[in-house]
Amino acid sequence: MSDVSRPWPAEARAEARTAVVIPAAGRGVRLGPGAPKALRALNGTPMLIHAVRAMAASRAVSLVVVVAPPDGAGEVKSLLDAHALPERTDFLVVPGGDSRQESVRLGLDALPPDFGIVLVHDAARPLVPVDTVDAVIEAVRDGAPAVVPALPLADTVKEVEPATVPGEPEPVVATPVRARLRAVQTPQGFDRATLIRAHESVTEDVTDDASMVEQLGLTVMVVPGHEEAFKVTRPLDLVLAEAVLARRRLNDGF
């Protein structure tokens, strides 16, 4: 077993360096044709740059690894070089794979051995406040093998039997207890050895790294998320993100 795949002792994890892996190789088809989702402009700046800055805003983050489209690593590196980023943080760009899971694994493979805490963050969540990033890191330092930020649900949720024809009525089969449900966000934080073991053990493609850790039989902890950490998936989300940035500029000079 390699050093990076051994669980870090609690006292070592409290002082462990933190890296962030941002998988940004997806096309973002729900936003329509054009550039990959992560490269779409938000207030004149690519969403990826906003997401990188959001992670680097935490003083605990020493390295951000951006996993680019397989044929676009050079373009993404040029993009990072062209924008002002915190000097205290190192940045690395690596080519991604055919799936999100493969891209995260490639990002993990690129990490130097002295990083004991790893965050995985969606490039399409460009507006995460630094307090949320810090809360995730702190929970991992306190001993949690995996941590996710999440929000309570505002709406009642129904489990249905999916229709065979899109648009047809669907019968409800259950109503989960809303108080027990959370909408999960990123960055998700991990003890590095735990995340490596999850990627080595879970073979099916998943969209959530924390669910891979759950399949190892380990407990994933939840910390409070933030309403501004929403995922930009559809055109209306871009409008909302622009509004958040406008409010930040007005209130904070952001």
Automatic annotation (TrEMBL):
Which keywords does UniProt give here? Answer: Isoprene biosynthesis, Nucleotidyltransferase, Transferase
Site annotation (Transition state stabilizer): which residues?
R30, K37
GO BP term, example:
isopentenyl diphosphate biosynthetic process, methylerythritol 4-phosphate pathway
**Record field: catalytic activity:** 2-C-methyl-D-erythritol 4-phosphate + CTP + H(+) = 4-CDP-2-C-methyl-D-erythritol + diphosphate
EC class of the enzyme, as a word: transferase
Positions bearing the site annotation: Positions MEP for the nucleophilic attack: R178, K231
* Keyword NAD among record annotations: no
- PROSITE patterns named among the record's database cross-references: ISPD
Query: Pathway listed for it?
Result: Isoprenoid biosynthesis; isopentenyl diphosphate biosynthesis via DXP pathway; isopentenyl diphosphate from 1-deoxy-D-xylulose 5-phosphate: step 2/6
- Which InterPro entries did the record assign? IspD, IspD/TarI, IspD/TarI_cytidylyltransf_bact, ISPD_synthase_CS, Nucleotide-diphossugar_trans
As recorded in UniProt, its EC number(s) are: 2.7.7.60
**Single GO term (MF):** 2-C-methyl-D-erythritol 4-phosphate cytidylyltransferase activity
Q: Which PANTHER family match?
A: 2-C-METHYL-D-ERYTHRITOL 4-PHOSPHATE CYTIDYLYLTRANSFERASE, CHLOROPLASTIC (PTHR32125)
Q: Which family does it belong to?
A: Belongs to the IspD/TarI cytidylyltransferase family. IspD subfamily.
NCBIfam families membership: ispD
Q: What does this protein do?
A: Catalyzes the formation of 4-diphosphocytidyl-2-C-methyl-D-erythritol from CTP and 2-C-methyl-D-erythritol 4-phosphate (MEP).
Q: Which HAMAP family match?
A: IspD
Instruction: Give the protein's recorded name.
Output: 2-C-methyl-D-erythritol 4-phosphate cytidylyltransferase
